[in-house]
TrEMBL record, chain A:
The UniProt record lists the keyword Metal-binding: yes
Domain Dehydrogenase E1 component, residue spans: 69-364
This enzyme's EC code(s): 1.2.4.1
Reaction(s) catalysed by this chain's protein: N(6)-[(R)-lipoyl]-L-lysyl-[protein] + pyruvate + H(+) = N(6)-[(R)-S(8)-acetyldihydrolipoyl]-L-lysyl-[protein] + CO2
Molecular functions per Gene Ontology: metal ion binding; pyruvate dehydrogenase (acetyl-transferring) activity
Main location: mitochondrion
Species this chain originates from: Pygocentrus nattereri
Tree of life domain: Eukaryota
Function statement: The pyruvate dehydrogenase complex catalyzes the overall conversion of pyruvate to acetyl-CoA and CO(2), and thereby links the glycolytic pathway to the tricarboxylic cycle.
Gene3D superfamilies, alphabetized: 3.40.50.970
Record-level GO BP terms: glucose metabolic process; pyruvate decarboxylation to acetyl-CoA
Tagged with keyword Metal-binding: yes
Protein name: Pyruvate dehydrogenase E1 component subunit alpha
Automatic annotation (TrEMBL), chain B:
Gene name of the encoded protein: PDHB
Any one Gene Ontology cellular component term annotated for this protein: mitochondrion
Protein known as: Pyruvate dehydrogenase E1 component subunit beta
Pfam families: Transket_pyr (PF02779), Transketolase_C (PF02780)
Substrates-to-products reaction catalysed: N(6)-[(R)-lipoyl]-L-lysyl-[protein] + pyruvate + H(+) = N(6)-[(R)-S(8)-acetyldihydrolipoyl]-L-lysyl-[protein] + CO2
Record keyword Transmembrane helix present: no
Residue ranges occupied by any Transketolase-like pyrimidine-binding domain in the UniProt entry: 39-214
Function: The pyruvate dehydrogenase complex catalyzes the overall conversion of pyruvate to acetyl-CoA and CO(2), and thereby links the glycolytic pathway to the tricarboxylic cycle. The pyruvate dehydrogenase complex catalyzes the overall conversion of pyruvate to acetyl-CoA and CO2.
Cofactor: thiamine diphosphate
Keyword Coiled coil: no
Alphabetical list of PANTHER family matching this protein: DEHYDROGENASE RELATED, PYRUVATE DEHYDROGENASE E1 COMPONENT SUBUNIT BETA, MITOCHONDRIAL
Chief subcellular location: mitochondrion
Keywords recorded for this protein, A-Z: Carbohydrate metabolism, Glucose metabolism, Metal-binding, Mitochondrion, Oxidoreductase, Potassium, Pyruvate, Thiamine pyrophosphate, Transit peptide
Length: 393, 365
């Protein structure tokens, strides 16, 4: 038996080295990993709530790998967008999400695909978690016909089922989100709407109008403030008389959540979703997070904050590193496995970028299409009176 | 039955309470030979909403005072009593907020009617109308529809002064992605509002407060539950050979009154009721100009960049230009914020004499 095993392992090893390929898969079997582990997560500061989310989160190996993969894909996708922007293949607005991955992934883990989500312009991460492929996202950024909005929308206007963008006007998405929640209540389908906005938008009047109506009518709306400390170039201290964003809902209960820990975000979102589904009305979550990039690609991001600050967050609180360390130190995954995933992701991003740069731009015939929905073909005036363009919906 | 018929006959003559009409409408439809029924614009709008609320459970109405107050101008009278809190929603005074909420609900597949107490207040919410509603279908390449209606009174009223008297036809008419209608009479109001509610796209319905109480005859066809007027089609209200008068909303009535006076002097005006501001039915105007060779636009709004200005530009760019014997004339509101004193207010919007004066000028009389 021993000879048999030696013989087999020799063959395998020999076979592997003949191809020159590294041994795929670790030498440890699946059974060697812990299937799950329980982690202590930070307690949330509460506003008008007696009880908050649990302070312990259960993470299965499967979930951990999924969250890791999703966050890493998002990270690499945003970095690829950075690269393409610097090569001038992406133009206009490009607001990158790297650093904030735990928010998007944690939220998605805490809700159902049948729930609804709307956010502002820093939307690429959510577009991905809501089901659009990296390929379609990058192709939309490069303005090609294979983009999720056929190249018509760009960075800030990507849509998917139960994902309502991508909105360019700061704060305008919040009443929209309350309206989506109204529709959930109206239809009685037990769905909730996650409505996101930033620390900058938190001072918009229409947000307070939305708070009032959502609370008045008990709409199943989870308002989430992604506080990344800066509204464009203005720090929170310089913009808000009160930086306790989770309390700004006043009569709406709130919680302050560590937005760099995917598990904390997940548990808080589950808590919030349960709250809304029970008919108690809206709830507010503040996610403390950080963006590595500037406000957009035209902002280097270092005139209003120090490189040291950025570096400190990267080294101490990076969401992807934190999850990776947790999993490895609890024997839930191996370094090789993680590296494999990274390689796969890199490949996926490369292929997507390849598509996004080679796919043709939308045809000029598409220029006037989709002005209306479900409408017979019509004529649209071009740039001069003789230019009569066709529009179909 | 015959006593019912005679009581109905009595009702069609003279003044009657609007409530009676709505209650007896059903009976009226079942009777064989009927007369034209007098319906106020207010009731026409009310009936249209009532019928559409009944027809499609996704339709709902929200706005200030629309429910328990029966509507600031009583346009939604009786609807809350019939349909309840879920479908007729009183909002706080938060235009930007509730307009956005309405748009969000439309994105999720409901069919909201968002009432602005007057369109002056829509300026608070105009970002939601334009950026969230009008542009979304295009930006999403057809993925996300917004089947919403924004309605309310537009333009000058009586004695409400500058901040409450602006006409927004040109502002909303400017934007692709929106449809904009402006009914004049009760049939217009019914048919256009029903079309707007059934349309899968954002429609702005510019009503007129001074017209709410005016009664018009509505045909049997016009009273049917599926009566709709196509958006984008103008109507020739009165045929004529000498000059074309194009107008929308309340001014259509002024044009018809002016036409009646001019007819006595042998001048036959063709009066066109635009019904829709966007898309503009240029073909109907052109066909008329080919016949009459003279065109006058009449509107309540300000002249610069207005509805009349657009019509002038389009006529010049099209085949009808060659048929004009004189430049197109615009009769518009005076280029000032609306004053309060009655004599000043009366002289701030086109009067019948202004239309008559312009007709005679263009005909060189």
């Amino acid at each position: 038996m021993q000879n048999m095993l030696t013989f087999i392992s020799n063959v395998l090893r020999g076979g592997a080295s003949k191809n020159g390929a590294r041994l795929v898969g670790s030498t440890r079997s699946f059974a060697d990993f812990s299937p799950q582990a329980s982690f202590d997560i930070k307690k949330c500061e509460l506003h008008r709530l007696d009880q908050g989310p649990p302070t312990q989160a259960l993470l299965t190996r499967e979930q951990g790998l999924k969250y890791y993969r999703t966050m890493q894909t998002m990270r690499r996708m945003e970095l690829k967008a950075d690269q393409l922007y610097k090569q001038k293949i992406i133009r206009g607005f490009c607001h990158l999400y790297d650093g904030q991955e735990a928010c998007a992934v944690g939220i998605e883990a805490g809700i159902n695909p049948s729930d609804h989500l709307i956010t502002a312009y820093r939307a690429h991460g959510y577009t991905y978690t809501r089901g659009v492929s990296v390929k379609e996202i990058l192709a939309e950024l490069t303005g090609r016909r294979g983009g999720v909005a056929k190249g018509k929308g760009g960075s800030m206007h990507m849509y998917a089922k139960h994902f309502y963008g991508g909105n360019g006007i700061v704060g305008a998405q919040v009443p929209l989100g309350a309206g989506l929640a109204l529709a959930c209540q109206y239809k009685g389908n037990n769905e909730v709407c996650v409505t996101l906005y930033g620390d900058g938008a938190a001072n918009q009047g229409q947000i307070f109008e939305s708070f009032n109506m959502a609370a008045l009518w008990k709409l199943p709306c989870i308002f989430i403030c992604e506080n990344n400390k800066y509204g464009m170039g203005t720090s929170v201290e310089r913009a808000s008389a009160s930086t306790d964003y989770f309390k700004r809902g006043d009569f709406i209960p709130g919680l302050k959540v560590d937005g760099m820990d995917v598990l904390t975000v997940r548990e808080a979102t589950k808590f919030a979703a349960d709250y809304c589904r029970s008919g108690k009305g809206p709830i507010l979550m503040e996610l403390e997070t950080y963006r590595y990039h500037g406000h957009s690609m035209s902002d280097p991001g270092v005139s209003y904050r120090t490189r040291e600050e950025i570096q400190e967050v990267r080294s101490k609180s990076d969401p992807i590193s934190m999850l990776k360390d947790r999993m490895i130190s609890n024997n839930m995954a191996s370094l090789e496995e993680i590296k494999e995933i990274d390689v796969e992701i890199r490949k996926e991003i490369e292929e997507a970028a390849q598509f996004a740069t080679s796919d043709p731009e939308p045809p000029l015939e598409e220029l006037c299409n989709h002005i209306f929905y479900n409408e017979p073909p019509m004529e649209v005036r071009g740039t001069n009176p003789w230019s009569k363009l066709k529009s179909i919906s | 039955m015959s006593s019912l018929f005679s009581s109905l006959k009595m009702m069609t003559k003279g003044a009657m309470r609007c409530v009676l009409i709505t209650n007896h409408l059903k009976f009226f439809e079942t009777i064989g030979n009927f007369q034209l029924l007098q319906v106020t614009v207010r009731d026409a709008l009310n009936q249209a909403m009532d019928e559409e609320l009944e027809r499609d459970e996704r339709v709902f109405l929200l706005g200030e005072e629309v429910a328990q107050y029966d509507g600031a101008y009583k346009v939604s009278r009786g609807l809350w009593k019939k349909y309840g809190d879920k479908r007729i929603i009183d909002t706080p005074i938060s235009e930007m907020g509730f307009a956005g909420i309405a748009v969000g609900a439309a994105m999720a597949g409901l069919r909201p009617i968002c009432e602005f107490m007057t369109f002056n207040f829509s300026m608070q919410a105009i970002d939601q109308v334009i950026n969230s509603a009008a542009k979304t279908c295009y930006m999403s390449a057809g993925l996300q529809a917004v089947p919403i209606v924004f309605r309310g009174p537009n333009g000058a009223s009586a004695g409400v002064a500058a901040q409450h008297s602006q006409c927004f036809a040109a502002w909303y008419g400017h934007c692709p992605g929106l449809k904009v209608v402006s009914p004049w009479n009760s049939e217009d109001a019914r048919g256009l509002l029903k079309s707007a509610i059934r349309d899968d796209n954002p429609v702005v319905v510019l009503e007129n407060e001074l017209m709410y109480g005016v009664a018009f005859e509505v045909s049997e066809q016009g009273l049917s539950k599926d009566f709709t007027i196509p958006i984008g089609k103008a109507k020739v209200e009165r045929p004529g050979n000498h000059v074309t008068l194009v107008s929308h909303s309340r001014m259509v009535g002024h044009c018809l009154d002016a036409a009646a006076v001019l007819a006595k002097e042998g001048i036959e005006c063709e009066v066109i009721n635009l019904r829709t501001i966007r898309p503009l039915d240029v073909e109907t105007i052109e066909a008329s100009v080919v016949k009459t060779n003279h065109l006058i636009t009449v509107e309540g709004g300000w002249p610069q960049f207005g509805v009349g200005a657009e019509i002038c530009a389009r006529i010049m760019e099209g085949p009808a230009f060659n048929y004009l014997d004189a430049p197109v004339i615009r009769v518009t509101g005076v280029d000032i914020p609306m004053p309060y004193a009655k004599i000043l207010e009366d002289n701030s919007t086109p009067q019948i004499k202004d239309i008559i004066f312009s007709v005679k000028k263009t005909l060189n009389m």
